[in-house]
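I would like you to sit down with the pair of lines that follows and say whether tokens and residues agree.
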Amino acid sequence: MDDLLLGVCEAARAAGMRMLNAGEVRVREKEGHANFVTNLDEAVQAQLIEALTPMLAGARFIAEEKQNEAAPDGYAWVIDPIDGTQNFISGLRHSAVSVALLRDGRPVLGAVYDPYADELFAARVGGGARLNGREIRVSERAFDRGVIAFGTAPYNLELTDRSFAAAKAVFLACCDVRRSGSAALDLCGVAAGRFEGYFELRLSPWDYAAGSLIVQEAGGRVGAIAPDVWGFERPIGVLAAPPQAFDALKALVEGVKGGETP
């Protein structure tokens, strides 16, 4: 598994270099509010599929820019070629390549590469989490002293009021909140101790498959936001935090209903 993870990390780095040397970027809209895709998303995804296919015979692919079935039994690669596409389009230089490997529906390894910061987060199940080869651990700060990252679920406008009400409730209970535009990097930020938590009310499996494993292997907790159930079969709400902050964050986020705090 270590050799396989090394190969995945090399593939993620190469894909990130493709992002940095993008050339002409062409943008088109997909279904949903402010949902865009670029020619680079498609090119990076094709490059990753080509690189990963010979690493594990018979593994399926679940990827953002293709038609997908539910996560199958056996092995499946889960790919987000550019997590943070709007950041990429806008030149904000905060996007990442995310690759995970599922075995029977559970992540066994994952890599997230930020080419702008040259930061490679990686983990395998039972092997800990690392940033550029150095072991990382989640923060030990208390929730009320912490900084919490969140996402706005921009493709699901029916969740807008609840998302911002939850962000307000969390803001009033912690030190501050942040919105970065990349779920994969926010999850890695939790794993590296930069954030004391992260939540978003709707993510697709490719947004969180790698990052969730990296958080867990760094000593953190991940889970679904009720009423969703944890898994990689469909989009769900996702919450991650160090053990000492998880329950407090979950209670606040789940306590917001329809844009109103209880």
Observations:
- The domain at 2-135 is CATH 3.30.540.10 (Fructose-1,6-Bisphosphatase; Chain A, domain 1).
- The chain has seven helices and 14 strands.
- The chain has two domains: 2-135, 143-254.
- The mean pLDDT is 92.
